[in-house]
Amino acid sequence: MSAATATPGAAAPRHDVKVVTALRRFAISISVLNILGYTVLGFEQPWLWPFIAVFTAYVVEIALEAVSARGEKRAPRFAGRGFKGMVEFLFPAHITGLAVNMLTYVNDRVWVMVFGVIVAVGTKWVLRAPLKGRMRHYMNPSNFGIAVILLLFPWASIAPPYHFTEYLHGPGDWALPAVVLVLGTMLNAKLTGRMWLIGAWLIGFALQAVVRGLLLGTAIPSALGMMTGTAFILFTNYMVTDPGTSPSKRSSQIAFGAGVAAMYGLLTGLGIAYGIFFATALVCLIRGGFLWGLHFLAKQRPAVAQPAQRAPAQQTPAEPAEQLAAVPAPATAPAPAPVDAAAVAAVRTGDPCRDGTCFHGKCASMRAAAQQKKKAAVPV
């Protein structure tokens, strides 16, 4: 059953079609490599351990998805799309379980390997950061599980690199790395789009080898010779290029790949073993912190811009006029009563003394006395 024919209550697939195709091919490749490893190549771990690792990864993935779906009040992503949907949902867990078992060596302590698988799968629900509108895990699961095993159990180690070609001789020593390189390059070029990351990682790794040789006296040919091993090719094409935990933008890919190489050179220069896994984990952690920083900055920008937008709204161009209108106008004398023009014409006789328009002192005194008499006659 495809996503198009899924039931109405089914959740949306976790990945798009292109990523699902890449995960499918990756899962098939690592499964075939494990089969060949235990039958032809000479893997050191017990043959039962891959099944234990995969079963553990499946259980943890399904359980945590069910808990997450219940908390977010949505349908689990493995439900509603039939058997195909369940298989596609478990691709990442399948890859993680096989990778942790294949790349670590913990003697006969199977529970240490199981612990690493649980940590690797569980980190996808713990170490998350907001990206493109939703929470996504930023820590490479398989790499983180291996790094935790190496940190907590000092007696543990990575799988010996020779076990990839232990029983191969002659052309076979070159054929296997060549096949892994070609298949991995095609996978990343056509589906994951991480060729810029791979290029930056390879160039950065070569540069750090030269720098360590010049500054610390490291044998440069030996440091560069690591790039020819099967384990390095697997890491380059299938570990550091994890599409879920590596950036997709070109400049970000270059920064990520070069950052892992620089961190590896620093850790190795400090004498820290297994620096390739610790370097990847640290760069993923730095990227996660960077994503959280961008998230908080994006949340603060609207809060800062909102007061600035309110200020112009409070002071409009009409405000000065409104303020002037609000100031009380000075008191003015009442407007004179309208004058009857006919009455004025009838009173005036042409004699300034009679009309009251002369400037004689005697006439002015008489007019003032007459005015006082009129005021006294008005009843209060």
Task: Find the structural class using helix and strand composition.
Answer: mainly alpha
Total domain count: 2
Give the DSSP E fraction (strand runs of 2 or more residues).
under 5%
Q: What's the average pLDDT? A: 83
Q: What features would you describe in this structure?
A:
With 380 residues, this protein is mainly alpha-helical. The protein folds into 2 domains: 1-157, no CATH class; 185-299, no CATH class. It is 67% helix and 3% strand. The protein is built from 15 helices and 4 strands. It has helices at 17-41, 49-72, 82-103, 110-126, 141-152, 172-192, 195-216, 220-225, 230-239, 250-269, 275-314, 319-326, 341-347, 352-355, 361-377, and strands at residues 104-105, 128-131, 134-137, 157-158. The strands form 2 sheets. It has a two-stranded antiparallel ribbon. Strands 2-3 form a two-stranded antiparallel sheet. A hairpin with a 2-residue loop joins strand 2 (128-131) and strand 3 (134-137). The model is unreliable at 1-6, 318-327 and 341-346 (pLDDT under 50).
Helices and strands, with pairings:
Elements: H1 17-41, H2 49-72, H3 82-103, E1 104-105, H4 110-126, E2 128-131, E3 134-137, H5 141-152, E4 157-158, H6 172-192, H7 195-216, H8 220-225, H9 230-239, H10 250-269, H11 275-314, H12 319-326, H13 341-347, H14 352-355, H15 361-377
Helix pairs in contact: 1-3, 1-6, 2-3, 2-4, 3-4, 3-5, 4-5, 5-11, 6-9, 7-10, 10-11
